[in-house]
Amino acid sequence: MSANITPDSQGSKKVTESVWSSLGLPPGAISRLELTGTKPVLPTSFHVGVAAQSSIALAALAATEIGYQRNGNQQTVSLDMNEAEIECTGYFKIGNRIPDSWAPLSGLYPCGEGHIRIHANFDHHRNGALKILGLHNSPESYHKEDVIRALKNWSAIDFESAAADANMVVSAVRSFDQWDNQPHSVAIKQMPLITFEKIGNAEPLQLPSLAAQARVLSGIRVLDLTRILAGPVCGRTLAAYGAEVMLVNSPSLPNIEHIADTSRGKLSTLLDLNTRADHNKLLDLISDAQVFVQGYRPGGLARFGFSPQALAEYRPGLTYVSLSAYGHEGPWSNRRGFDSLVQTATGFNFAEAEAAGSTTPKALPVQILDYASGFLMAFAAQVAIIKQQNEGGSWHARVSLVQTAQWLRDMGRIEGNFLWDKPDFDSLTQLYPSNFGKLAALPHAARFSEMSSDWEKPSNKPGTDPARWRR
């Protein structure tokens, strides 16, 4: 992929076509994609607008290809860059309230040497980081000033290592050069954006017949075992294209308020895989599903018997999509991470600050690694369905935040793009049915020539639905 691409829809077209053709997908499909937009709206030196538009375009175009294979109908897709960027802001309101994205102790901190980013949105992550700093008692009573004082005795790299050893979520700020010299960076450098692996033999699954005007993924069942942004965005996107998506959460794991936004169009159930009854309920759901999406660390579900290989044997023909922070190879493959931490570790915060003339590390204006990865997961799931229909077999597709970060970095940079005429987000939202309260959220940016890309089911709280498919 060429660096320093044009920061507009023509750049997005090049990026989209490059990914599409690299997977051997029908080249004629690109002619059915209409991309618009002359400049990005978000203030950043990176091609966030191109990443947003390209990742959504890939997901939407793959959906039309499935529709074409199912009923012979070739739809066009139109997509504006600015609408794609705005969707990736994840803006929404519950009632008149904009939920907080960050807990009080989450954020960037100076250390005795370097800077560190701490992710403290979940109490157990906050408490673990505080424990390493010697701040043991009443973790909810500490403030950022207490953390700053404690970090004066640490280098950023040493604290990151201590946190990783304790399975906490922390990243040291690095430059691109420093990241490139990391063993993990070297290990993943040659990996593709998305990895596809045929993991079992199976005949092509018989998909339900598709009426001419039906949504292209109608009748396709997706299990969504994800929680934090990227994975839930994947499931929400597939639901927008007509899939029956069931979100499966654990009753013992916390969620973030963005679940109200990312649950649009989904059924939602709670299963405790430590119990035999719920373990069997998930197996029953898998037996009638075409796609299984999960966002646990590599190997995290294997201990419950839900590895890709195990499910390929149990449900031949299944498409299995895995999301990880740092990929499935290399010394950091089991390390926990979120968008903000991967940005920090891989050099983006340092580079963005340099471009803005700042000495303080600067985050990208949106969590583009999460959102682009979510749309790429939706794309990967659909590509795997196409492969399954054409070649048979069971398929495992892997997406990681770190590979998406490398994809964004490979697009090059934009000069002098830090002025922001912030749009009126409220005027861009729509009201959606929800049992979280009155939900105002952004629509999906992709438009199809012959179907809606809106959601048919309300946004449901975890546990609203029983663990069974609707008949």
How is this structure best described in words?
With 471 residues, this protein is an alpha/beta fold. It is 37% helix and 15% strand. The chain contains 17 helices and 16 strands. The protein has helices spanning 9-22, 48-71, 81-87, 123-132, 144-151, 156-165, 176-180, 183-188, 230-240, 259-262, 276-287, 308-314, 339-345, 348-356, 368-391, 401-410, 425-428; strands at 33-36, 77-80, 92-94, 107-110, 115-118, 170-172, 195-200, 221-225, 244-249, 266-270, 291-294, 319-324, 394-400, 430-432, 439-441, 447-448. The strands form four sheets. Strands 7-13-12-11-8-9-10 form a seven-stranded mixed beta sheet. Strands 1-2-16 form a three-stranded mixed beta sheet. Helix 10 links the parallel strand 9 (244-249) and strand 10 (266-270). Helix 1 (9-22) packs across helix 2 (48-71) and helix 2 (48-71) packs parallel to helix 15. The protein starts with 8 loop residues before the first helix and ends in a 23-residue tail after the last strand. The model has no long low-confidence stretch (mean pLDDT 95).
Whole-Å distance between the termini? Answer: 45 Å
Helix content: 25-40%
Strand fraction: 5-15%
Low-pLDDT stretches are none
Features:
alpha/beta; seven-stranded mixed β-sheet; 471 residues
